[in-house]
Design a protein that fits this description.
There is one protein chain. The chain is of the alpha+beta class. Among the domains are: about 90 residues; about 35 residues. The protein has six helices and five strands; from the N terminus they run αααβββββααα. The protein has a five-stranded antiparallel beta sheet. The longest helix is centred in the first third of the chain and has 48 residues. The mean pLDDT is about 75.
């Protein structure tokens, strides 16, 4: 008589049960749990994602405000430095002749602040916000006349620029007078006055007035004749 086989140990039975294929319900449960774990590990719950987005927006607003404040502070510093340079140039500008209106010194508080000396010359700050740049617009482009972080050096450069501009103005006035421009304009005014005060001028004006008077009288007389003819033809007939 054969002896019965011994029962497998408990560990072996668990291994057999683990190797057994799960049912469809168990398989669906396992897949669902795995997907939930993956979503929880990568993206997080919806409330956490919304909180993260709100924090990111708050940080972005703070950074933008800090950048705007820093830009405003830098621009205010540039304007202050240019105004200080304008104050240093005040004694020089006080010596400019009163009939000279080519210099209009003032700070333009634009996005890039500038201290204008005239229409083609101005001073602005370099990228380091400490160095002055004295520039001039010419027919060949914009040129740098002086670049320094010292106010005194820029004042000397602007003073020399103003002196050269005054000399150019004097030369232009001298050339205009030598070419007969001013004398010709003065002669035209004198001749016009002479014509007005002469006897021939008076006779010419009187003749022109008489011609205008008779011309107007003839015109209105012609209108009266035409009106009378039209009345007789269209109304009396």
């Amino acid at each position: 008589m054969e002896e019965p086989l011994p029962a497998p140990p408990a560990d072996a039975r668990d291994a057999v049960q683990r190797n057994a294929s799960p049912t469809p319900a168990e398989r669906l449960t396992i897949v669902t749990e795995r997907e939930r774990a993956a979503r929880r590990g990568t993206r997080g719950p919806l409330d956490e994602r919304m909180a993260n987005l709100a924090d990111a927006l708050r940080r972005a607003r703070l950074e933008n405000a800090e950048r705007s404040a820093a830009f405003s502070d830098l621009r205010a510093g540039e304007i202050a430095r240019l105004e200080m340079l304008g104050d240093a140039l005040a004694p020089v500008l006080a010596q400019v002749p009163r009939d000279c209106d080519i210099f209009d010194v003032g700070v333009a508080p634009t996005e890039r602040p500038r201290l204008f000396i005239d229409q083609i010359g101005f001073v602005e700050m370099d990228r380091d916000r400490r160095t002055y740049r004295f520039l001039q617009d010419t027919r060949h482009g914009r040129v740098t006349l002086r670049e320094s972080d010292s106010v005194d050096e820029i004042v000397d450069a602007v003073t020399g620029y103003i002196a050269h501009r005054l000399i150019e103005r004097e030369k232009a006035l001298a050339v205009d007078y030598a070419s007969g421009g001013a004398a010709q304009a003065l002669g035209v005014k004198i001749s016009a006055r002479a014509k007005d005060t002469s006897f021939s001028g008076k006779v010419t004006r009187a003749a022109a007035f008489i011609a205008e008077f008779f011309g107007a009288a003839a015109f209105f007389g012609l209108l009266a004749v035409l009106a009378a003819w039209a009345y007789r033809v269209y109304f009396e007939g």
